[in-house]
Write a structure and sequence with these properties.
Layout lengths: L6 H6 L9 E3 L5 E4 L6 E3 L6 E2 L11 H11 L5 H14 L5 E5 L5 H8 L3 E6 L2 H13 L5 E5 L12 E7 L5 H7 E12 L5 H7 L16 E15 L2 H10 L2 H4 L2 H4 L8 E14 L2
Parallel strand pairs: 4-7, 5-6, 5-8, 6-7, 8-9
Antiparallel strand pairs: 1-2, 2-3, 9-11, 10-11
Helix pairs in contact: 2-8, 3-4
This protein binds S-adenosylmethionine.
Length: 282
């Protein structure tokens, strides 16, 4: 199965073993580096490339990926994705290269690619990246590429990217700063004070608002901060459980509290997302 990959995305990829630039093999089945040893990484049948050096797996499980896919496809977070795309349109040119660090199953990456940006998404979860690559293929997005890789060690060349987006995923600021061009932007989306309060009230006896973040990535300045605040109405137990499974609370909640969602068929809850935009200083 031969692969095509956008030239500008290809030029930005670096070998995870030796940091040399990558190129497409002659049969277009693999990415190979330009070093004498030619480290070689094959495209999986789903269309992604595993550029992680360890084989220990990690990242979201198949079930978590399925929950997120089902939830995001309902359109409930479309306004979050629109807000991320507006940030990109406001700060970088169309066709600019965006790294989606911790891209999950590619919902945000593919919507950014549809808006005209070149997007390379990386995630530690093979299941998530496989979904992302299938989504890009289904949507005919030749300007999106997906690879398995850690956000702490991106297979991306220094100073090659116009933007890094980091949506509810681990934030590796120093690594994002390395791959950004001078003047490039980092957009970090995280939960605001009221995020999912309605859901939390169903589960916990006492609920707390989220704390605001004040950390500042080194070598960057805060340019902009946008709040996306609206209510969503969920009308099935399956979607309520999908949303819950996407949250960090899922892993720290007792079976007894989780059971409170059994038989719950409707839920109104707040979506409150902050998108902080930083610029890399030259
Ligand atoms: C909450 S999900 C968010 C996914 C996606 N950005 C979204 O909002 O739909 C967090 C993602 O980070 C990934 N992840 C966790 N640790 C990672 C790491 N060190 N490097 C890359 N991805 C990681 C998980 O596999 C998961 O897909």
């Amino acid at each position: 199965m031969n692969r095509r990959i956008d030239e500008r995305i290809l030029d930005s990829l670096s070998c995870p073993c030796c940091s040399e630039q990558m190129r497409l093999s002659e049969d277009e089945r693999s990415l190979v580096c330009r070093a004498p040893r030619r480290h070689c990484f094959d495209f999986a049948s789903a269309g992604y490339v595993n550029l992680a050096l360890t084989h220990s797996g990690g990242g979201d499980s198949k079930d978590a990926v399925r929950s997120r896919t089902e939830f995001l496809e309902s359109g409930a977070y479309e306004r979050v994705s629109d807000a991320v795309n507006s940030v990109l349109s406001d700060y970088i040119s169309e066709g600019g290269l965006v790294i989606d660090a911790g891209c999950g199953e590619g919902y945000y990456s593919c919507r950014a690619a549809r808006a005209g940006f070149r997007v390379a998404g990386f995630d530690l979860s093979k299941d998530a990246v496989a979904q992302a690559a299938k989504r890009a293929k289904r949507e005919g997005l030749a300007n999106a590429f997906f690879g398995v890789g850690s956000v702490f060690s991106l297979p991306v060349a220094d100073s090659s990217s116009d933007a890094v987006v980091n949506i509810f995923a681990p934030c590796a600021e120093a690594e994002y700063c390395r791959v950004l061009k001078n003047g490039g932007i980092l957009a970090v989306a995280y939960a605001g004070r009221e995020h999912l309060m309605g859901l939390k009230r169903k589960i916990y006896d006492s609920v707390y608002t989220n704390e605001s973040r004040s950390d500042m990535p080194e070598g960057m300045e805060l340019l902009d901060e946008r709040r996306v605040l609206y209510d969503i109405e969920l009308s099935s137990e399956a979607q309520i459980k999908n949303l819950f499974a996407m949250t960090p609370y899922y892993w720290r909640t007792s079976a007894e509290d989780k059971n409170k969602l059994e038989g719950l068929n409707s839920l109104r809850t707040e979506v409150d997302i902050i998108i902080a935009v930083y610029r890399k200083n030259g």
